[in-house]
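Input (structure):
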């Protein structure tokens, strides 16, 4: 006596397909979420590397003008108030003019039509023999905008 099981299997394959599509869609949503977080953190890392590059640019400018550093022309720099750019590069600059040129050029990273960091400011301060470069910018986060900063201490 052979009983046919075919009549008891109606609709089972449709139910299995429905479950498979549900599991696949949840998996794809998870992958999309991972991609979104990866892009967000990649953008944050990019901005942090830009801030690092900008800070090291000022360090290199200061190292190339040791007379300006020893005279104190880099002791209190703020990108909110930049000196006027001297037009002396082709003719030769004094240490003061070179420091003004360096500060003005460095300030261009923070302003203009395409700033390297959104809403960024930069400062250089001196305490004893230690210089501190602080770069601050605004970054988007999950909860809105967050202020970020990078601080570098160095001695020349």
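Output (sequence):
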């Amino acid at each position: 006596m052979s009983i046919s099981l075919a009549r008891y299997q109606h609709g089972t394959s449709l139910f299995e397909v429905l479950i498979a599509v549900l599991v696949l869609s949840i998996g794809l949503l998870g992958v999309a979420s991972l991609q979104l977080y990866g892009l967000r953190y990649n953008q944050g890392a990019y901005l942090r590397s830009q801030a690092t590059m900008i800070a090291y640019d000022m360090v290199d400018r200061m190292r190339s003008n040791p007379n300006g550093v020893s005279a104190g022309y880099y002791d209190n720099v703020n990108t909110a108030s930049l000196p006027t750019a001297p037009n002396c590069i082709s003719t030769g600059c004094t240490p003061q003019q070179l420091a003004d040129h360096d500060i003005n050029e460095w300030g261009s990273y923070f302003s203009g039509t395409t700033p390297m960091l959104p809403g960024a400011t930069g400062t250089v301060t001196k305490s004893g023999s230690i210089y501190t470069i602080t770069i601050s910018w605004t970054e988007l986060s999950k909860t809105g905008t967050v202020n970020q900063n990078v601080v570098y201490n160095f001695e020349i």
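Notes: The mean pLDDT is 84. The chain has one domain: 7-155.
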